[in-house]
Amino acid sequence: MPSRPATAVLAAGLLAALLVPPATAQPSATAGRGSQVDLEVQRFDVRLNDVQKPNDATGDRFSTLPFTGSGLTEPRLSVEFPFERWGEDHRIRITYAPLSTRGTGLPGAPIRYQGGTFAAGAPLDVTYRFDTWRATYSVPVFGADDPVAGWGLRAGGTLAVRDARIRLRQGAVEQDFTNVGPVPLLFVAARRTFAPGWTFEAEADAFPAPGGGGLFDGTARLRWQATRTVSVAAGVRHIEGGAVDPEFYNYFRSTAATVSVRVGF
User: What does pTM read for this prediction?
Assistant: First the structure.
């Protein structure tokens, strides 16, 4: 479950949606049919973030949370462009999803990381980053994408480019690991309008990797169409995954409360 701060953000988002004057509401059948920009704010409660490099007896597995903390607030920006092909609504979405945290703490035991040794009891600065740029192509399933008449279901694929970094620094001792590269993901999405102006949405980028790694990034939210072109939403996002191989281990798990504003054109 989200932390108390995350729950507060979710409640505030729902309250904001309810307080928008109802006279401006439009049925969501008109929403999401053209190009749109979506800005989301996420308040994460990080449950797990374990790191080891190398992933063998010469490296120590440790949690970053005593150094960086478990609370994390990040924006997320998406731009989506629809176009018609074979009489169907195809879409391309570009997303920037940053995820970065940094902090200082006192190790309870020495940490061996990437050939360096960081002493216990001395301040250790830890930086963790896993930013992604994503390009998603999706199509309606079985040609159906009318959430007013029923469930709107979409499927496709996402090419994510990760920009990852884990840095440990203690006095003159520093070890910095960066990794930039592509991550192919499967994309699924569902939405349904259950009352005039109100829509339930759920979607996920996901792909398992050998050895227990991979990535799952899924969200569920409730959206209210404030005007014909502007909507607001509140919901929950869960991100989990990592990398597991002989050279490197990292596993991350977090749940976030989210609020967002979408503008259509």
Answer: 0.84
